[in-house]
Amino acid sequence: MSRIRVCFLGTPAFAEVHLQCLLNDARFEVVGVVSQPDRPAGRNLQLTPSPVKVLAVKNGIEVITPEKLKNEPAEFEKIKSWKADVAVVVAFGQILTQEFLDSFKYGAVNVHGSLLPKWRGAAPIQRSLEAGDKESGVSLQKMVKKLDAGPVIGERRILLPIEMGATELYERMSKLGCELLVNDLVQYIKGELQPVVQDESQVTIAKKIEKSESQLSWNLPASVIHNRVRAFDMGPGTYVMIKEKRLKIHKTYLISGATDKLQPGQIVRVGSSELVIQTGEGQLGLLIVQPESKPRMSIADFVKNLNAKEGDYFV
Fold first, then answer.
1. pTM over 0.70, yes/no
2. For helices 51-58 and 13-24, what crossing angle results, to 10°?
3. Which of 67, 178, 274, 289 has the fewest beta carbons closer than 10 A?
């Protein structure tokens, strides 16, 4: 089989990892890259190229960065001139037209961070952890017009321990997504794998995360708070208000066998390296926090300056 000519569409670091996998594999030839335009970043809001664009330029690959590909016919013509066999889409961030999807011999495929049809949408990794799923994974789907609804070419599964956060899961998924591209995608193009249509009755939606979801309430069950903390550790993070200041919560743990002897928000235990809070149901231990305008710190460092005792309200 001759080399597979790929048009790659992606933007963040997650997509960059997948582009590098294709570049490392002699069976693929990345003939062009599409990424989001440079965006302001850092304290000075300096225009900064996406990780995918940086990697493409480094490897001498032609890159285009349309604001909205569907509204820029000249850019679409440029893509067609690359004569790619397949489009590989990983966290690109734009809606693609049916005309685009139909313009490649083998269509367009997408690496998606869930076991489709579960968690279609913008935030599959975070919503899976927030829901307390025991298992997740990565799917390679053939793209159709309807969001994340295409037939599945292949998948890789991941068990989700209760302490695993989104950052760790994100890294695991990037490796498995690469595996899907260099194995399952090749088999699909060879005609050795047939995509499986998704079961529409099993669809769940991973809606976009709103900033308002970052604020926690001790009235929630401990398991809900813990799952949101680990789900949002990759962004946008979580916090509680303490004396009208934000205390970011970066890592927590559940207290097994806890009884609800205090009111939500009261301190159950505080020691040299321990801070346990009563919630609406169960108790939650804090491990890593970040006071407003200060760096993140262990709970041992935080309690050194915490003038509080058992029974005090942690608000």
1. yes
2. 30
3. 67
